[in-house]
Design goal:
Shape: globular
Strand content: under 5%
Number of strands: 0
Distance between the termini: 54 Å
Order of helices and strands: HHHHHHHHHH
Radius of gyration: 19 Å
Largest sheet: none
Length: 259
């Protein structure tokens, strides 16, 4: 039995926990890099720039492989076919519930509530950042899907059904945009000791949505990774522009800062 067959079948739960642990570790690392209570504004700006460039580079590399149908595409299809053969109905049923955290309607409702709260609290600059990060990412995803027009893998199990183009993943984009931006805004209100835990929780939730899309066979793995990369770059760009504008006006950023 191959590694992919074990991940898709008997050890699917362990594979999910490993994926989740890796995501939380990455969230902890990035949260530490961006914690303004630990690093100077200049270094923070350099880190953001590096993350933007890195995200765009990862997306570009994956996109080039998708267009040229390289070995990455072969791996995508092999994984999807293995999942179709091996994934258990009980596991798929659980993931079909989990994936709701990335559904468009759910995120739209959550986004509307967050926007209303920001406006009620008279946090106009945060409201603008929220709209730029979340709606901007959604618009970018629509443009990219139309540009690449990648067909989804077959998913005939009946636990979920998706139409439209596959690359990059809309659920992964939405989860990264909404939960990532929400974590940034909440970090500005939280005590420093809580910030890394918040980053880990957000990363775990985002990764869980992405994992569910692959395991449910409605997206290829590269769809999800590419969505994470380009959306993270977009969020970093929005935050960087906002914080630079705040500094030029002598304002304190509303995101993670020293206390």
């Amino acid at each position: 039995m191959t590694t992919l067959e074990l991940i898709a079948g008997r050890h699917a739960g362990l594979a999910f926990l490993a994926w989740l642990a890796g995501a939380c570790a990455l969230g902890l690392w990035v949260g530490g890099l961006l914690d303004a209570s630990r690093i100077s504004p200049a270094r923070r700006s350099r880190v953001m720039a590096a993350l933007i460039v890195g995200g765009v580079a990862v997306f570009g590399l994956i996109a080039a492989n998708v267009v040229t149908e390289s070995r990455l595409v072969v791996l995508d299809k092999t994984l999807a076919e293995t999942l179709a053969e091996r994934a258990s109905p009980a596991w798929l049923r659980f993931l079909a519930v989990l994936t709701v955290a990335g559904d468009r309607d759910f995120l739209l409702g959550l986004g509307t509530v967050v926007l209303a709260l920001l406006l009620w609290r008279r946090r106009g600059r945060d409201a603008v950042l929220w709209l730029a990060g979340t709606l901007g990412a959604a618009g970018l995803n629509v443009l990219l899907k139309g540009a690449f027009q990648r067909v989804r893998p077959e998913h005939l199990h009946g636990f979920t059904q998706e139409l439209g183009w596959s690359f990059p993943s809309g659920h992964a984009t939405g989860a990264m945009a909404v939960y990532g931006m929400l974590a940034y805004l909440l970090a500005g209100l939280a005590p420093p000791a809580w910030r890394q835990a918040m980053a880990m929780f957000a990363a775990g939730l985002i990764a869980s949505v992405g994992y569910s899309r692959v395991m449910l066979q409605v997206h290829y793995l590269s769809d999800v990774i590419a969505a994470f990369a380009v959306t993270a770059a977009w969020l970093m760009a929005c935050v960087a522009v906002r914080e630079r504008a705040d500094r030029s006006r002598g304002l304190t950023p509303s995101g993670p800062r020293s206390r």
